Amino acid sequence: MKILACISVVPDTTTKITFTDNNTQFNTAGVQYILNPYDELAVTRGLEIAEANGGTLTIVHVGKAEAEPVIRKALSMGANEAIRIDAEPTDAQYVAEEIAKIASGYDLILTGRESIDYNSGVVCGMLGSLLGIPSINVVTRIDFADGKFSFDRDIDGGRESITCAGPCVASAQKDLCEPRIPNMRGIMAARTKPLQVLAPQANANFSKCTSYELPVAKSGVKLIDAQEAGKLIDILRNEAKVI
Amino acid sequence: MSVLVFAEISDGKFKKATFEAVSYGRQVADMLGTEVVALAIGNGVNTADLGQYGAQTTIHIASSESFTPDAYAVAANAVANEVNASIVIVSNTYTGKSISPRLAQLMGASLATNVVSLPNTTQGFVVKRGVFSGKAFSFVDLQRDKKVIAITPNSFELATFDSTGTTTSSSVSLGSSGLSITAVNKVTGKIPLTEAEVVVSGGRGMKGPENWHMIEELANILGAATACSKPVSDMEWRPHSEHVGQTGITIKPNLYIAIGISGAIQHLAGVSSSKVIVAINKDPEAPFFKAADYGIVGDAFDILPQLITAAKN
Ligand SMILES: Cc1cc2nc3c(=O)[nH]c(=O)nc-3n(C[C@H](O)[C@H](O)[C@H](O)COP(=O)(O)OP(=O)(O)OC[C@H]3O[C@@H](n4cnc5c(N)ncnc54)[C@H](O)[C@@H]3O)c2cc1C
Ligand SMILES: Nc1ncnc2c1ncn2[C@@H]1O[C@H](COP(=O)(O)O)[C@@H](O)[C@H]1O
Q1: ipTM of this predicted complex?
Q2: pTM to 2 decimals?
Q3: Whole-angstrom Cα distance, residue B297 to residue B13?
Q4: Among all residues of chain A, which has the CA nearest to that of B70?
Q5: At what angle do helices B69-82 and B94-107 cross, to 10 degrees?
């Protein structure tokens, strides 16, 4: 079985987000980059399924060389090989177009539910449509038995179970598995695993980010005495008018 | 040309998020001097409801097939072609987010999810969307002629119209799906977190799952959904589907009440777009107070009963 896991490289969750150049560029100064938390789940579950079925897991990332330490991390978790498509992505649709060019021939393709930087949640469905295969978003379970994949996925207000003969693409949601922590042997092995760099091929003309904005800061908290906590309800009803 | 709105049906009804999408679509259509068409796939719904919120026409495809993104995207694309739609609006729900990339791909359209504003068409077609899991917004210009926009629930006011619109049945058929749905478990009687206008949320300060009845009681009285911090769901005090924050769900209710939650940056990321934030914490130095509109410094176990009593009146 051949499995492909798409990974994005994102600012660490503690990053304070700021912008430069008149709010047109994300300020990368001092930012630590990590493997997108949902992709960590996709890689882990992909490895578990590959290992149980005598398969392989390939990692793909669309991005520049700075991402290589994070790609090596995915390799140190146990992935067999990696592909980096050497481009600065403009948006998630472009990423999907690039990945689609190398993604045929896999039985299962995994992405994260969304990247925690641009939060598009787009790559899974786009890839499915480009490759003409089913896509299953926000999955909390993936199993493979009797030649079929089965999934649980979050739906609005509940959960649904699905089967699919494959090939298909699915996006990982929390609860899928516990992320695997690389061990020393994995880290050593990752150094020499194949990492192929490919030139970009797709057209990037879907969208263009023109500027950024930070949320309006709160003007200050109004404190209510704990002895008279019930007053809060009155304030929410009559002053804030939200209940 | 027209603006098409994909109207989600859940349990034989349209959701509020769908009405918001219709009202949004109407405003976009008015801006562009064209009409808004709603597409409803399913059975048993009252399509006149869509007219009330702005749909001039509703195209109804009667079908008892469950939602699958591959089959529904094919039908939505066929209808978009039929009505010459260059803009399609969906809700930024799990359903909307799973169909929109497939539909955008079939249409050759630019796609923006997480959208919180009307388009600005003075220079291109620019929409504002949430990025960095609630820590910021970006403005993106959608460059293709066709666009698909997923709008975040509770970011656009409903508009009502004195009309039911007209409904036509369509014989467009769903595409085939490579997926078989084997079971559906819906939580009944609970408001989905992403669509809730009021959210009551508890953190580790609540001490244990046995104390959640107070959070639930307050939520019930306020017609609110319940949420929690990451450690609370990690410890399985609450289901993971209630976990809000940078690695959980990002929400945008009118009111967010945080009880016994410290206010870590990853938590705030997912909730800071809420219109009004209340923090209840026994530690006056808790970071949540800096992000809140109202606060009570005190013990949750003293304060919650007072709030429940006051809310009942
Ligand atoms: C990669 C990563 C991603 C993360 N993503 C998320 C995320 O998406 N969402 C999220 O929530 N967290 C996330 N976190 C965790 C985050 O950093 C915090 O650890 C977490 O939010 C803390 O949860 P808490 O406030 O419930 O618990 P604590 O930090 O333990 O805070 C408990 C609070 O309750 C108060 N308290 C205690 N007893 C009482 C009482 N009787 N009455 C009133 N108040 C009381 C305390 O003063 C304290 O402020 C993430 C962390 C990492 C590293
Ligand atoms: N630059 C990228 N390279 C490879 N995969 C990516 C990239 N960006 C996003 N993805 C994948 O697509 C998922 C969803 O990302 P997004 O659609 O950007 O929210 C991520 O969790 C990754 O699995």
Answers
A1: 0.94
A2: 0.94
A3: 42
A4: A134
A5: 50
